[in-house]
Amino acid sequence: MDTVIHLDHLVKTYTSYGRAVPAVRDVSFDVERGELFGLFGSNGAGKSTLVRMLATLLTPTHGRATVNGFDIVRDELKVRSAIGLVASDERSFYGRLTCRQNLAFYAALQNVPRSKIAAAIERVLDLFNLTAKADVPFQSLSTGQKQRLNMARALVHDPPIVFLDEPTKSMDVQTADFVKALIKQELVGRQHKTIVFISHELYEMDNFCDRVAILADGQLKAIGTPQELSVHVPRRAIYRIEVQGDADRIAQQWRALSSIDAVTEISRGITFTAFDVTLNAETSGVWLQVLQIVGECGGRVETYRRVDDGSLRDIIKHFTRE
Amino acid sequence: MTNLKLLAFFQHGLHLARSYKLNFAARYVAAFVSVFFYFFLAQLFARHQVSVSPGVDYFTFVLIGGAFSKYVEIAMRTLADTLREEMLLGTIEPLLSTATSTTLALISPSLFILSEGTLLVFAQLIMGVLFGADFGHANWLSAIVLTILLVVCLSCLGVISAALTLRYKRRDPINWTIGAISYVFSGVFFPITALPAAMQIISAALPFTYGLHGLRGALLNGSTLINLWPDVFALLLFTAVLLPLAIIFLRGTTRYLKQSGAIGQY
C-alpha cells in the first residue's frame, strides 16, 4: 500500500493563560492512497486541531507528519499544493463576489495555470451542481449551496488529498446524501483521491468510511475498519421482541437467565408487549432459551428484529468510555 | 508563479472594489473634490497674501502634500484594515491554506488599493495642472524614486500595524496615531518651519516628513537625487530600521498564529 499521510507521535498543546492545554496527544497513524478515512470524535476531541496541523495551518508542538511525502513544517507549500481543505465554516468566501470570481481567485493561489482556470471552475461547479449559480454572488446562495461551493473550492486545483471537516454540516438530508455519494463514488471511486472525512456525527461514517480513527480527549483510541473495530467490542446483541401473553412473567423469567444482561419494556398494548432484550452472548443456544421461555409462559412471539447491529455507535462507545 | 499570484490579488481587489459601487465611485469623487478644496484654500491664502516660502505657489505645495498623503493612509491603515476584513469574513484561513507563501498571502490583499492609490495621486496631480498647478520645473525621475522609497518605508510601518492587528484582532492604535500625526507634523498643509521648534522634533521623527520634503523639492524645484540626498538618506535609514522590524513582526505573528491556532479566530 502507498501511504500518503503519515503521523508520527504528533502532539499539539495550546497555552491558555499560562496553562498548557493538550489538544492532540501523541497521535500516530497512516492513511493509504485512495482511502476514505474517517476521523471521528466528539466536540473538543482534537479532530480539527489534527487536520489543521496536517493542512499546515498549525505547528505541532512535538512529533512530525508527512502529507503526500512532504513534511508539514519544512515543506508547507508543497503540502498545501497537494491538499484541499474544507473547513466547517461555510461563510469563508467574499460575499459580494460571484462563485466564479471566488473560485478563480483561489485557483490562481493554488497554482492552477491561468489558461486552465476557467475549465477547472466549470469542472467543479458541474460536479457540485452549481453551474447555474456560477455568476451569482456568494451571499445569495443558500447554506447548502455555500457548503457545496466550499467543497468545490477545495477541489479546484484537483488535489490528490482532501480534508473534509464536517462537510455536510448545515446541509439537508438529500444534499448531504448527494455529497456523500459524490465523495464515495466520484472522488474516491473514480478519481482515486484520498479523503479524510471528519465528523462528530456517527451516522455520517457508518457504511461510508473504509477505515475510522476514533479520537477522544486528544488521544487516538482506536483505528481500523468498522469490522476490525467491532472485534474489540464485547459480543452483545439487542433484540426487540413483541410478545403476546403474560408479559410480566416472561420478562421475569428472561431476567433470571445468566445469558441475558437486560430486559427493558418498550411499550405495552392491549395484546402485545414490546421488550428490548440484551443478550450477552450471540449464540443460537441463548436465542433458543429466550423463545422457549415465551412458550413455557403460554405466550407467543409476534415479531422480533435486531435493533443493534454491532454498528459504529457501539464501537465508539466502547473505545471512548471512561 | 508569484507574478501570476500578484495579478490574481490585483484582479481580486478590483472585483471587490467594484462590487461596492458607491464606495468605489466615492473614492474617485473624494480625490477630485480634494483638489477643489486645495484650489480654493490656495485662493484664500493668495487673497491674504500668505506665502509658504518665496516663489512657491501654495496650490502646488498643498496639492503635493495632500495627494501623497494617500500613501500614509494606505501604509498606516489599509494593510491592517484589509487583513482585519479578511478575518471578519473568515477568509484568512482559506487564504493561508493555499499554496501561496504566508507573507505574500498577508501582504498582497492590499495590492489593488496601493495601485489605485498611486493612480489617484497622479490623477490629482494631473487635475491640479488643469487648475494651474505648476510642474514646469519638475524632475520626474527624482519624484518617482522618492515615491518608491516612501512607499517601501511607509509599507514597513503598515506591515508592523498589520502584524499587530493579526495578533491582537484589533486596529493597532500606535500606527493609527502615527498616521494621524503625520498629517499635522509632516507638512501636508503648511511647512514644518511654521511649527514651534519643540514640535519640529516630532516632524523630524516621521518618515513622511522627508518623503514630502524631497517630493516637493523634485516637483517644485526640479531637484536631482543628489540635491535631495538628505531626504533620500533619511528614508533609506528609516527603511533600514523598519524593514527588519517589519519582517520580525510578521514572522513572529505568523509563528504565534500557527502555534496558538488563532488564525481563524476574531
Can you give a write-up of this model?
The complex is a heterodimer of chains A (322) and B (266). By secondary structure, chain A is of the alpha/beta class. Chain A has eleven helices and 14 strands. In chain A, the strands form three sheets. In chain A, strands 6-7-8-3-9-10 form a six-stranded mixed beta sheet, with helices on both faces. Chain A has a four-stranded antiparallel beta sheet with strand order 2-1-4-5, with helices on one face. In chain A, strands 12-13-11-14 form a four-stranded antiparallel beta sheet, with helices on one face. In chain A, helix 3 packs across helix 4 (117-127) and helix 4 (117-127) crosses helix 5 (143-155). The mean pLDDT of chain A is 87. Chain B has 266 residues and is mostly helical. Chain B has helices spanning 2-19, 21-47, 58-89, 92-96, 102-107, 111-130, 140-168, 173-185, 197-204, 207-221, 229-260. In chain B, helix 7 packs parallel to helix 11. The interface between A and B is medium-sized, with 37 and 31 residues.
Q: In total, how many beta strands of chain B?
A: 0
Q: Gyration radius of chain B, to the nearest Å?
A: 19 Å
How much beta of chain A, percentage-wise? 25-35%
| Spatial order of strands in the largest sheet of chain A | 6-7-8-3-9-10
- Structure class of chain A: alpha/beta
- How many strand units of chain A? 14
Give the arrangement of secondary structure elements.
The complex is a heterodimer of chains A (322) and B (266).
Chain A: E1 3-16, E2 19-32, E3 36-40, H1 47-54, E4 62-67, E5 70-71, H2 76-82, E6 83-86, H3 99-109, H4 117-127, H5 143-155, E7 161-165, H6 173-190, E8 194-199, H7 202-205, E9 211-216, E10 219-224, H8 226-231, E11 237-244, H9 247-256, E12 260-268, E13 272-279, H10 284-296, E14 300-306, H11 312-320
Chain B: H1 2-19, H2 21-47, H3 58-89, H4 92-96, H5 102-107, H6 111-130, H7 140-168, H8 173-185, H9 197-204, H10 207-221, H11 229-260
Helix pairs in contact in B: 1-6, 2-3, 2-6, 3-6, 3-7, 3-8, 3-10, 7-10, 7-11, 10-11
